[in-house]
Amino acid sequence: MNLHNYSLHMDFIMVGFSNFPGLEIYFIVFFVLSYITTLMANSFLILLTYVSPSLTSPMYFFLSNLACLDIVYTSTTSPKLIHIFVIANSSITLSACIAQYTLFVAFTSTEYFLLTVMSYDRYVAVCRPLHYSVLLSRTFCRATSVSIWIIGFIASAPIAVATSQNCYCSSNVINNFFCDIATLLELSCTSTAVTQNIIFVEGVLFLTTCFLPTIISYIFIISTIVKIKTSEGKHKAFSTCTSHLTTVTLFYSVIFVLYMTPRLAVTQNQRKVMGVLFANVIPMLNPLIYSLRNKDVKDALRNIRKHEVFRQFISS
Q1: Domain span at 164
Q2: Are 95 and 12 in contact (CB under 8 A)?
Q3: pLDDT higher than threshold 50 for residue 3
């Protein structure tokens, strides 16, 4: 059996949080509760946008996409992590590891584009409100939604293929709680130049097609808000962007720490904590961020009990 075939059949040992002795029960409780909360909160938000006539604008269409994304996104890591804690079996095959980080990269890439589209939605709502229904038509929203999900999986494919060609013989211990691409590359005993080049190229593309347009959108939004003469008008305009801006700030801040800071500047345990924030906490917080400060969502919550679909959902 050659080295590559051996790698394909090897098992990795996922360290997870075993280097925090005595805290296992707290980790189990946290991850189980956070996963259940994420599933319930995001599912409820999807249901709310579906049954509420007041939540039919493009903003809430993309918000339901974000809720769906958060569900599948956290489901790539949480079930395996909970399994490790409960069953005390920390092994994972290379093929399962590749599948996990492929989905993780795909959903992360999708969220890049989704948050960018949502920033464009906020730009049109604030800066060009009279053209909102034209620029963000139902056809445009549906086509954009399908496209960004497809692009997310396309973006993950080259990384998955390149990484699967590497040989892993230096160690089989993954010092993380999921198969993070950076951690996996450290275990390769062959050159990872091709994979690193792909990651670099895709990083530059994401920077130019997602991050910069988001920044530019908010520059226009802020400049428009500043020109509004009344304080009430400024508050109303800015309040429509607060939730999205909070989500964007959290998302890019954690990405920056995890993948753009030097490896020696942040310890592995600190990266694990940031990884938990990225993979578990943010998907749980997103529906709360979009609900607590949103008048339309609050009004919809007050009226949802009157809806037949909701009553059927509760009684089922």
Answers
A1: 3-315
A2: no
A3: no
